[in-house]
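Protein modeling request. Please complete all fields; requests missing the sequence field cannot be processed.
Requester role: graduate student
Desired output: 3D structure, token encoding
Chains: 1
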Amino acid sequence: MAWDFETEPEYQEKLDWADEFVREEVEPLDLLWPHEQFAPLDETRRKIVEPLKNEVRRKGLWATHLGPDLGGQGHGQLELALLNEILGRSSWAPIVFGCQAPDTGNAEIIAHYGTPEQRERYLRPLLEGELFSSYSMTEPQAGADPTRFTTRAVRDGDGWVINGWKFFSSNAKTASFLIVMAVTNTEVSPYQGMSMFLVPTGTPGVNIVRDVGLYGDAPGQGSHALIHYEDVRVPHDALLGGEGQAFAVAQTRLGGGRIHHAMRTIGLANKALDMLCERALSRETQGSRLADKQFVQGYIADSYAQLVQFRLFVLYTAWEIDKYNDYKKVRKDIATAKIVMPTVLHDIAWRAMQVHGALGVTDEMPFFRMVHGAAVMGLADGPTEVHKVTVAKQVLREHAPTDDVWPTQWLPRKREAARAKFAEYLEHEVGNL
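Delivered output (433 residues):
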């Protein structure tokens, strides 16, 4: 029977190195360039970031989600989860370690579904960290419901012509290429009638109408594009995974992306808990430390309980993915992690913010960005409510109704069955009275 909560010493040594490396070398980048993670490196940032990337490569921790044939380590989701706990503390860390979203998911699907030519053109430079990509799926009128998508790709000669609108295409303004989901056959179900296309950002007709910012972003700092695809012509070999395969490609990408978000959230929530405890131990009011106040003790206990439960569940789900190598088989637990994730981060960050008092709500502390990030994660890769429906349906499949008027656990019937089972002994006991 295999049941273990320990990490192999060799990999734990790498995790310990990554923990110190991120704290000392990478987290300072968040303070100097908080909005530049997905911008092409200028001369100054290149002199700093490239040596950090090379150090990660020397330690064998670069792009660990991909196999050695693609420049990664093939560590699997469980080892990636343990590493992402550390990387989640810093917005620059995934860039330095070659596993930033959305590029990780995009790299996975190109590796899985791309032709050799597509891998050479798009995947290899993506893995080198020299360019960025964007996943262009959701639409203004449809949100995350692909059955209502209207962006079309129509055959024209030896290629395709794409027309339509896409919304919230993250990092499109700095991306070298986009992965675009479009309707290619209106005569069949949307689940069989959509395809994915690899589209260079500079292709004529790719019009970034505006970059939408999140609350708190400085004007002009938005990175979530509204894109109008207007007679965008691409060759036939721009198809990713073949015609009509968009849903299979999307589920491969989104399944991995959702669990990667959860992994990094653990590290960010743990950072909030650390700040909460430091403040509680450092601040005094009304004759004692905050750590001695029962309300604050409750905050700490609730935060720790939420974080530990979430962490164990995410690690278990990552283990399942490695074991079955089938995102569909683990769909229920991936969706459950996606449901729980925003609440865990929101609650812990909010409590930490409250304990910091007025300082907590200023831009001199990171709590509001964490709280807002929790709200974003409740919508990214599908709204929480949609995932709850998915989980409920999956759970119900594991149960069956009863045709009886009484539930199967109705106590009078079960008590009678228990008496019948042990009638011989009960009669003997009565006879001895």
